[in-house]
Amino acid sequence: MSLAVATKIARRELRGGLRGFRIFLACLILGVAAIAAVGSVREAISTGLEREGATILGGDAEIELTYRFAAPEERAWMDANATAVTEIVDFRSMAVFGTGDAPERALTQVKAIDDLYPLYGTVELDPALPLAEALAGDGGRPGAVMDPILVDRLGMAVGDLFKLGATEFVLTARILNEPDAGAGGFALGPRTMVQTAALEGSGLIQPGTLFETEYKMRLPDTADLDALSAEAEGDFNGARWRDRRNGAPGVQEFVDRLSSFLVLVGLAGLAVGGVGISAAVRSYLERKTAVIATLKTLGAETRTIFQTYFIQIGVLTVVGLGIGLALGAALPIALAPVLEDRLPVPATFTLHLRPLAEAALYGTLAALIFTLWPLAKVEDVRAATLFRDGAVAGGSRPRWLWFAVTALLFIALVGTAATLSGLWQLTFGAAVGLLGAFALLVLAARGVRSLAKYLAARRALRGRSALRLAFGAVGGPGGEALSVILSLGLGLTVLAAVGQIDSNLRGAIARDLPEVAPAFFMVDIQPDQIEPLTAGLTANPAVSNVESAPMLRGIITEINGQPAREVAGDHWVLQGDRGVTYSDRPVEGTNITHGAWWPEGYDGPAQISFATEEALEMGLKLGDALTVNILGRDITAEITSFREVDFSTAGIGFILSINPGALRGAPHSFISTVYAAPEAEAAILRDTSNAYPNITSIRVKDAIDRVTDVLAGIAAAITYGALATLITGGIVLIGAAAAGVYARTYEAAVLKTVGASRGTILRSFAARSALLGAAAGAVAIFAGALAGWGVMTFVMDLEYTFEPVSALLIVTGGVLATLVTGLLFAWGPLAARPARVLRARE
Amino acid sequence: MTETILSLSDAELTLDGNAGRVEILKGITLDIARGETVGLIGPSGSGKSSLLMLLGGLERATAGKVEVLGHDLTALDEDALARVRRHHMGVVFQSFHLIPTMTALENVATPLELAGAADAFERAEAELQAVGLGDRVHHYPAQLSGGEQQRVALARAAAPRPELLLADEPTGNLDGSTGAQIMDLLFDLNARHGATLVLVTHAPELADRCDRVIRLADGRIGEDARREAAE
Hints:
The complex is a heterodimer.
Chain A: H1 2-13, H2 22-51, H3 53-57, E1 61-66, H4 72-81, E2 84-97, E3 104-113, E4 124-126, H5 131-136, E5 143-146, H6 148-154, E6 161-164, E7 167-177, E8 191-195, E9 211-218, H7 225-235, E10 240-243, H8 249-287, H9 289-297, H10 302-334, H11 336-342, H12 353-376, H13 400-421, H14 424-456, H15 465-475, H16 481-512, E11 520-525, H17 527-539, E12 543-559, E13 562-563, H18 564-568, E14 578-582, E15 592-595, E16 607-611, H19 612-618, E17 625-630, E18 633-643, E19 656-658, E20 669-676, H20 681-691, E21 696-699, H21 700-739, H22 741-753, H23 758-795, H24 804-824, H25 827-831, H26 834-841
Parallel strand pairs in A: 3-8, 5-7, 14-19, 16-18
Antiparallel strand pairs in A: 1-9, 1-10, 2-3, 2-6, 2-9, 4-7, 5-8, 6-7, 11-20, 11-21, 12-13, 12-14, 12-17, 12-20, 15-18, 16-19, 17-18
Helix pairs in contact in A: 1-10, 2-8, 2-10, 2-12, 2-21, 8-12, 8-14, 8-16, 8-21, 10-12, 12-13, 13-14, 14-15, 14-16, 14-23, 15-23, 16-21, 16-23, 16-24, 21-24, 22-26, 23-24
Chain B: E1 4-17, E2 20-33, E3 37-41, H1 48-55, E4 63-68, E5 71-72, H2 78-88, E6 89-92, H3 104-114, H4 120-130, H5 146-158, E7 164-168, H6 176-193, E8 196-200, H7 204-207, E9 212-217, E10 220-226, H8 227-230
Parallel strand pairs in B: 3-8, 3-9, 6-7, 7-8
Antiparallel strand pairs in B: 1-2, 1-4, 4-5, 9-10
């Protein structure tokens, strides 16, 4: 009964239009649209990856082997189960163009293929040649196709000759699209594609060389992927299986993580908007006090009145959600052409319901959290209000029930966000951070009010009417201190936090780089090359140091006889293969933290020295038995010591070091780090690749640039994500300024009546805006820095440094924004004629 | 014997204001009989409107007892008070207090709807016709003159047929002739439905139309005169 009447009254009340709800709607729409858009892009990529799984992977399934080709029986298994199998050899090398004194050299990721490649999709080339024709070559030389970036870097043109190792190739085309490019992980060098047969005699694929083979299979439709996967991983030594169901797990994980983080940024934006939403509802209900009191006089119960306004706010929320969802769904579709160009993987931009449902849920919960509290205050409006101004019953806080309901909704929101994003730690951190910032801002507002009240009464301010008026207005009853500091402060806090994360991410590489980093990593050095190479390098006066170590690649498969991942979870050391070295003695300066190194010349059962920090993370202890698959052979060794490995020096660091006797006879190569003066780098690169064409030299500077680019991309995505928060903050600020217009108009009229000039009034308005903006900014710097520290330390696992420039810029921006909006909204009050204002008030 | 429907004994009202506690009503004792018309007069600040608020359960007495139609208003919560008003009282204000987003018809129908009347709109329309606004039923308050708005307010107060009608200076915001029309309507409605009317006014001629006039001064009843008795 009560609900039916409430619905009727609510419907009539809504005829009053959306006046006063523009801010409410704008905040809700922006927050929901941002979250829906991020979710839609994530879903578009996931759907694209799923749909194009086989194309991205280059087959229905793939078996990857490290360091070796498939054994005949393994190949037979593949041929028996698949309708087609293509073999790919993937390795790093140096592409050398030109002869004479200054040939151009660049690192490249070589993909050597057979005639069947690609099983799915097509390699698009410029000029548009069939791949087989392009790789067949010209004039007796084998052909090669290259990523345009590499072609440009080397200054080549189609038809030019270049060398990979000892073999000369002719560049026949640029690669426009490599269908299975997304399946590979992070590559330091751009792609070169050749026929595997053409590599014979190049010296690039030798025992101990770092290469991977990928066997991509076309499977019959009836193939049981799970069964095949279990069989392959069980029977093939050190094989890694992937299939079309998740063709690019790295990309998928990266996209999931980044978008989850962006959704959290969106939620922070929604929280900022929540302040605006709450203020809009409060001010609407304040305007409705007389109506509420009238309804009470007519016999309406509190419940009916609460339902009336709950329904109204509910309808507006539905409108806001609807527009927000429509925008969030439409934006990625509208921007699809631009986004598709920038994404390295296929994406299906269409209407995705799941992210919209997620955004709707967040929007509804946020709207409830921020509207219930002001709505509950209708309980306090008494019918006597109609007779006497301010006869609103005392309690400014709603009943505990509402507090409890709001708290429960908040917990539900945080729980939902944590569950859906999978980022529990970050979500809880963000929630606690926002609550903390909220509390700090309330405290700051109270502090500013008390201070302003105190200062307004000081003798020193007598005669400085503009300042005294400003302090009086901030410190006096009904001041705007709390609403402005809260709305501006929360917005600035989110922005300051994003600013800190952004500058820290961008600066991370440069800052964390060791003061003396090596100039090169050289890999694939054959055992007979290590001595002459080292001798040649150390003879060069520009080279200050050369460190070398034998290197093999191995996969940890078991810990104490149990599958490694079952024991130590998904630790990064267990993801893929790791470098393994051997040494009779610990490297000079090694800090053995537990146990003891094997004796020199030791030839007993295999022993391992493991990196201390990683061992602790994986729960390993001395005496544990590790099974490491090296070149297809399982080696089980006991951990006899832990040692500190510092990766931050960019020197050589191996997680695993094994006693030499255990690896005797295993083909391997060497890795060297070369410390040299920057000006000598080009000459070293030239001399080394001329003398040893098979050795790949990776310039540390190039690698760092590549990583920096990736980090800068992430930082940019976060900044774009925060854009919605910035706009929401602006809207809330404008809302707060607009809400004060009526009071300021009246104040200006009274002040003019008693003789204040417009200049004095304007200065007073400016001073109070600046004061409130500065207070909000100060809290934002502190809370934003705290949040930045939390994210960098616990989420990114990077060192945090306070970035004063970004912080100050944001706060200055905030103060200026308050000042400008405050002054813009002062224009009306200043222009109003006092007599009209005062008469209208009577 | 005449039935007492309204009874105050030693009722007090003290409010906390910015300037400290203010005693508004001091020891008011008063009985009003069913069907009586009572005028409350007195200078500004004497407590007339506050007394009316106590009678309507719009304000809670800080001491003493307020009984209306057998309900002890001092013992009821806000919602229970709202129910008492819904079923037994009509209130008319100086500032009309119509709901701006509702038409005249909807304004009048609202208390009937709140009371669960199925024929709320039919009764509301009849009520508006009774106050001479049959051609204004779909107008919004902003489209009506002050006198018309007050007539809507009168219709709204009278529609549920309350036993008690409370009016707070109902002509205070109207010019003389419009005010006179409104008062005629008010007394006419009251006479037709036999409600008890308590009227706050500054105008002696209006008070003179009441069966009984109570003069308040400084929060106390200074004079309580029955017109019939005086005559």
